[in-house]
């Protein structure tokens, strides 16, 4: 919302200065008559420029130019469907962050703790099995297998020896000889395999296997420790920060949604409505100009010699051409602290009349009949004698 002061055209100001100067220099008013001090000026009012900080497409224009509006009344409504969708997404994000924070604060469930413990026990059992391998039963079984292979080898070797002698005399065929030789070679291979298996069992687990099993147990124990200890303080703090950020985003969108309705900040009159439904507005663009009915005054200019005859709070009678038979009440609200139109060198009393000070006289305009731009005559009701 942007406020401004609606001022008259420059020539009004020049006419006022001329009237003041002529009155002061020719008739001498302002020097202590019972009739008071008379000045001419122009009525001004405060202008409010309203708009939206978010912009968007105009959905509705709810007032017309010249219509009186009250404080808080909706003037223009924008299409905020996209913002409503963003709000739903932001609220869903808040719910998600709340669930995450609750999960972290509660820690692991009993089922998760039991599962982590079972994994640790499995890894420990596997390590024990690797360290204690082989069992005595396995070694005994391997020794028996070697003995059986050795006995079989002895029998097959005896049969092969006889086959060799019979082959030399021609009492057996070549096929029978080859068959005996194959059985001899197979028995020998079996004996070698059983011997190697027995050696492997007698040597036990390799160091690499033991280290690998120990590492698996360590990882399982660490995982169980983390489950039992729960989340770190930093993780909970991060979850809380994420939740706060999500909530702030929701509030930000709600503020933007509120900007979808352009409201009147005060009781006023809609002077200009510059948009229509369907128009696209940029953020901070003015959509309406309002004039405050109760913020109305006359701006007069008092020459420097008469400045000491007026003060803030002093009452005044005001007349306008439109209502010649009526007198409106006024009171001095402001006296400028800096003069205007000061000549470069002031040599005489008459020249000091050209240095003027702006004075703001507030008008009682409850009826709302006075308008900005009207010419007005202001009479200060306090004279020099009464002031003394």
CATH topology of the domain at 2-80 and 266-387: Elongation Factor Tu (Ef-tu), domain 3
Strand order of the largest sheet: 2-9-12-11-10-13
- Helix-residue proportion: 40-55%
Number of strands: 13
Return the string of H and E elements.
EHEEEEHHHHHHEEEEEEHEEH
Distance between the termini: 46 Å
User: How would a crystallographer describe the biggest sheet?
Assistant: 6 strands, antiparallel, barrel
Derived from helix and strand composition plus strand pairing, the structural class reads: alpha+beta
Secondary structure blueprint with pairings:
Layout: E1 2-6, H1 10-27, E2 37-51, E3 56-61, E4 68-69, E5 74-78, H2 81-106, H3 110-131, H4 136-169, H5 174-203, H6 207-229, H7 233-258, E6 261-263, E7 268-273, E8 280-281, E9 286-303, E10 315-320, E11 328-335, H8 349-352, E12 356-363, E13 375-380, H9 384-387
């Amino acid at each position: 919302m942007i406020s401004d002061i609606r001022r008259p055209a420059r020539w009004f100001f020049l006419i006022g200065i001329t009237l003041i100067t002529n009155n002061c220099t020719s008739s001498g008013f302002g020097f202590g008559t019972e009739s008071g001090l008379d000045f001419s000026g122009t009525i001004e009012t405060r202008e409010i420029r309203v708009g939206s900080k978010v912009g968007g497409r105009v959905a509705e224009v709810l007032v017309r130019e010249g219509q009186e509006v009250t404080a808080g009344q909706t003037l223009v409504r924008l299409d905020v469907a996209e913002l409503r969708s963003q709000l739903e997404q932001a609220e869903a994000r808040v719910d998600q962050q709340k669930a995450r924070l609750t999960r972290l604060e509660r820690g692991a469930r009993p089922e998760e703790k039991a599962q982590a413990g079972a994994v640790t026990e499995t890894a420990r059992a596997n390590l024990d099995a690797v360290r204690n391998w082989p069992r005595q039963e396995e070694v005994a079984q391997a020794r028996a297998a070697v003995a059986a292979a050795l006995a079989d080898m002895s029998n097959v070797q005896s049969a092969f020896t006889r086959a060799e002698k019979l082959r030399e005399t021609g009492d057996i065929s070549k096929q029978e000889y080859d068959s005996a030789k194959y059985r001899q070679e197979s028995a020998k291979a079996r004996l070698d395999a059983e011997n190697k298996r027995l050696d492997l069992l007698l040597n036990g687990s390799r160091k690499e296997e033991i280290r690998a099993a120990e590492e698996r147990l360590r990882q399982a124990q660490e995982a169980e420790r983390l489950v039992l200890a729960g989340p770190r303080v930093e993780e909970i703090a991060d979850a809380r920060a994420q939740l706060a950020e999500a909530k702030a985003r929701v509030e930000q969108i709600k503020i933007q949604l509120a900007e979808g309705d352009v409201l009147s900040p005060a009781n006023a009159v809609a002077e200009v409505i510059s948009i229509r439904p369907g128009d696209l507005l940029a953020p901070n663009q003015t959509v309406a100009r309002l004039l405050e009915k109760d913020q109305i005054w006359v701006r007069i200019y008092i020459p420097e010699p008469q400045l000491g005859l007026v003060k803030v709070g002093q009452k005044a009678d005001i007349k306008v051409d439109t209502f010649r038979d009526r007198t409106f009440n006024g009171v001095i609200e402001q006296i400028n602290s800096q003069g205007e139109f000061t000549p470069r060198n002031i040599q005489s009393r008459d020249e000091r009349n050209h240095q003027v000070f702006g004075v703001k006289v507030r008008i009682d305009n409850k009826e709302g009949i006075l308008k900005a731009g009207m010419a007005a005559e202001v009479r200060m009701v306090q004279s020099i004698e009464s002031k003394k």
